[in-house]
Amino acid sequence: MNASSSKTLYDLLEVNASASHEAIAASFIRLNACHRPLAASGEEDATNQLIAIREAYSTLSNPERRRRYDEKLATRLEAVTSNDTPKLSFLKLLTLLAVAGLLALGYGKYQSELEKARLERERIVTAAKVAELDAQRTREEKAAADQADRQRRADEAAERNERARDIVYGSQITRSVQYSEAQLRLEQQRAEQQRASAERQRVAEANRQLAKDKAYLRELEANSRRTNFDNR
Q1: Domains (ranges, CATH) in the chain?
Q2: Is pTM beyond 0.85 here?
Q3: Secondary structure of the chain in the HEC alphabet?
Q4: Each residue's pLDDT tens digit, 115-129
């Protein structure tokens, strides 16, 4: 078994079997950036390495594919251990068992990380929903407050207009009453003037009649004296 075929996908990405999804992604980004310029220049080893790390990342970045790969890797290690038992020392056996344990531990840790990530996503989604509900409630409360404020201003404007109409109407009534009172006083003055004029005419007529009567009496007296004088 040569060196390249003995490498695991974890070895290609330079991470251990218990690496988290974030650690695998970060290592892939680093290695991809490192080999891509060389591969672009036509270097064959860099091209092969770039293909290998991309295939490794494609497998290990997918939870289901990673699980199946870990199972195959553990099976392969068990097969190697079974075939080479007569040749392996006790230390090598312990090493293989330790690797298998690390793989199992890594998968368990990976599953734990996935569960944590799932719970974190659920927490974020729940928090976002709560925030949206709070924002919606805030918007509704603000809309209700704005509507109440607009209604209050409309009521105040209507009340002011009503008071203004009352004032205008009151002023019109006052002017009408004042005009009626002025007309009444004018009529009373004209009637008083007419009565005074009629009284003056009556007095003047009475005086003229009195003057006529006096003149007539004086004429009678004068005629009586002449008659008496003639009789003597």
Answers
A1: 3-139 (1.10.287.110)
A2: no
A3: CCHHHHCCHHHHCCCCCCCCHHHHHHHHHHHHHHHHHHHHCCCHHHHHHHHHHHHHHHHHCCHHHHHHHHHHHHHHHHHHHHHCCCCCCHHHHHHHHHHHHHHHHHHHHHHHHHHHHHHHHHHHHHHHHHHHHHHHHHHHHHHHHHHHHHHHHHHHHHHHHHHHHHHHHHHHHHHHHHHHHHHHHHHHHHHHHHHHHHHHHHHHHHHHHHHHHHHHHHHHHHHHHHHHHHHC
A4: 887 888 888 666 547
